[in-house]
Write a structure and sequence with these properties.
6-stranded antiparallel β-sheet; single chain; alpha+beta; 8 helices
Length: 457
C-alpha cells in the first residue's frame, strides 16, 4: 500500500559464474504468463529445471523502480540526478551465508549505459561511539581485511547497458546468516537518472571523489534511505541446498512500511531470523514495492506485479518458493472517490479480475517448479485515502475467501486473520498497526511472521 503523510514524521520510520553475465529483461505481459521464458544465463540452469539449478542463493534483494523525486513521506533521494565523480556505499543484511559472494546490478530503467568504474564488498565496521553522526561517516566503515575487489568478466570496471542487469564475478568472502555486507560502487562519469528502490529502510552513503577502497567512512557525508543499482547480493557454498531461496513478492506489507528504519523488522527480515534460528539454510529475498499493484502499473509505485514477476522472481537463481502478497492497492485505487495521480484508473476492480491475476502468477511459478504461497489482503478500512470502503472491503473479503479455500495456492499465510480486529469488521488490531491505520508496526510484522509454518516454505 502507499505510504501516508504521517509515516515519515515518526522517528525511525519512513527493502559461480565465470565472468560477468548480462541478464535479459523479458517480462510477463499483463494478460498472460503461463509459460514465461527463462532469463537465467545459459551457464546457470533456470531455477525450475528438473534435476538442475544453481547453488546460488539470493541472500538479499530489492526490486528495481523507475527514478522518482523524493517527497515528504520518504524523504529525498538521488535517483533523478544520479551520480557523477562520486562513490556510493550501501549496507545490507544477508539472510543466509556462504563461502562466495556476488552482486547483481540493474539499469533496467536507465535510458543510457551506466559505467561502473569499480566495486568492492566487505564487512561493515563498528561505529565509534565517541564520534557519532554522519559527518564522521561513523556507519560507513568497512573492516579492511574483509574488503574484496569485485570484477566483471575479470575486469574491475564494467558498463551496464540500458534496460539490463549485470552479475559480477564471485569472490571468496565467508558470510553467515544475518551478517551485514557493505557494497561500494564508484562512478566517474555521469550516470543520468538511476534505477533504484525507493523505500530502502536502511542508509546508503555517498562521497565525493574516489573512496572505493576507503575502510574509513569519513568521506561519506551524505545519506538517503533508498538503494541504487544494487538489486541482489547472492551467496554460494557447496553445502547449500540446490534450491533454497524464498522470494517475498508483494507491496508495502512486504516492503516494510510502518516498521522501524534500520531495525530489519520487515516480515521477510523476521522470517530470515526464524529460519536461521531453526538452523534451516534458507535465503529470503524481499521483492516488495510499497504501493505496488497486482494488475496495473503506477507512475509512483512501479510496474504491475504481473509485469515484474519475471524479473523479480522467475529469473533469480535457486528459487523454490514465492510468497505472493498483493491486491490491497488495486482495491484502494480501484474504488477512489477523487483522483490520485499515483493511482491512474484501471476500470472496475472485481474479485474475478484479481483472482485471474493471482492465477497468472501461480501458473508462472508452477511452470518453473516454484511453490506459490498466497497471502490474504490485510484490513483496509480506516486508511486516510478517499475511496469507497464498503465496495473495496466486499471485494477484499471475497478475494481472501478464495485465497484461503480455492485450493490453487500451494499453501496460505493469513495476513488478514492476524491483523484483523475481531470486534471491528475490516479494521486492524490497534496494537498491531501503525498510526496510518493500515500498515503493520514492528509488533504486527512479528505477529504475521510468527504465524508462518516454516514447513510450508
Amino acid at each position: 500500500m502507499p505510504t501516508s503523510k504521517t509515516s515519515r514524521r515518526r522517528p525511525g520510520i519512513v527493502t559461480a559464474l565465470a565472468g560477468a553475465v548480462l541478464v535479459g529483461t523479458s517480462l510477463l505481459g499483463a494478460v498472460g504468463c503461463a509459460s514465461p521464458s527463462a532469463t537465467e544465463p545459459a551457464t546457470e540452469p533456470a531455477a525450475g529445471a528438473a534435476g538442475t539449478g544453481s547453488k546460488w542463493a539470493v541472500a538479499w534483494a530489492t526490486s528495481a523502480q523507475r527514478p522518482v523525486a523524493g517527497n515528504d513521506d520518504l524523504g529525498p533521494n538521488w535517483s533523478q540526478q544520479g551520480f557523477a565523480d562520486q562513490t556510493l556505499r550501501q549496507v545490507v543484511r544477508v539472510s543466509t551465508g556462504g563461502s562466495q559472494v556476488r552482486i547483481r546490478l540493474s539499469n533496467v530503467y536507465g535510458s543510457s549505459p551506466v559505467r561502473v568504474a569499480g566495486a568492492t564488498v566487505g564487512l561493515p565496521g563498528t561505529a565509534n561511539p565517541s564520534r557519532p553522526g554522519l559527518a564522521n561517516g561513523a556507519n560507513a566503515q568497512v573492516w579492511p581485511d574483509t574488503m574484496r575487489t569485485l570484477t566483471f568478466a575479470g575486469a574491475p570496471a564494467t558498463v551496464i547497458p540500458a534496460g539490463q542487469e549485470l552479475v559480477s564475478d564471485p569472490v571468496p568472502l565467508p558470510t553467515t546468516p544475518l551478517e551485514k555486507l557493505a557494497v561500494t560502487l564508484r562512478f566517474t562519469d555521469p550516470t543520468g537518472p538511476a534505477t533504484f528502490h525507493r523505500m530502502g529502510l536502511a542508509t546508503s552513503y555517498r562521497a565525493v571523489g574516489d573512496h572505493l577502497q576507503d575502510s574509513g567512512g569519513d568521506a561519506y557525508t551524505e545519506s538517503t534511505e533508498s538503494t541504487y543499482y544494487l538489486t541482489a547480493v547472492e551467496t554460494s557454498d557447496p553445502a547449500l541446498p540446490q534450491r533454497n531461496t524464498v522470494v517475498a513478492f508483494g507491496d508495502s506489507a512486504t516492503d516494510g512500511v510502518g516498521s522501524t528504519s534500520g531495525a530489519n523488522s520487515r516480515y521477510p527480515d523476521i522470517l530470515a531470523e526464524r529460519l536461521a534460528e531453526a538452523h534451516r539454510p534458507t535465503a529470503v529475498a524481499n521483492a516488495g514495492i510499497a504501493g505496488n499493484r497486482l494488475l496495473s502499473d503506477s507512475p509512483c509505485y512501479g510496474e504491475a506485479a504481473l509485469t515484474r514477476f519475471q524479473r523479480d522472481v522467475l529469473s533469480r537463481p535457486g528459487v523454490r518458493t514465492v510468497v505472493i502478497e498483493l491486491g490491497g492497492n488495486d482495491l484502494l485505487g480501484g474504488y477512489l472517490t477523487s483522483p490520485e495521480p499515483c493511482f491512474p484508473p484501471d476500470g472496475q476492480i472485481s474479485a474475478q479480475r484479481m483472482i485471474e491475476g493471482y492465477r497468472e502468477l501461480i501458473r508462472a511459478a508452477h511452470t518453473r517448479g516454484i511453490k506459490a504461497v498466497g497471502a490474504t489482503i490485510i484490513p483496509l478500512r480506516g486508511f486516510p485515502m478517499p475511496y469507497d470502503q464498503d465496495a473495496a472491503d466486499e471485494v477484499r473479503t471475497e478475494v481472501n475467501q478464495w485465497i484461503r479455500t480455492g485450493g490453487e495456492f500451494d499453501s496460505v499465510i493469513d495476513f488478514d486473520r492476524v491483523m484483523a480486529d475481531p470486534a471491528r469488521q475490516g479494521l486492524p488490531r490497534p496494537g498491531y498497526v501503525y498510526d496510518d491505520s493500515l500498515h503493520p508496526t514492528d509488533t504486527g510484522y512479528h505477529a504475521i511472521t510468527n504465524s508462518i509454518d516454516l514447513d510450508q516454505l
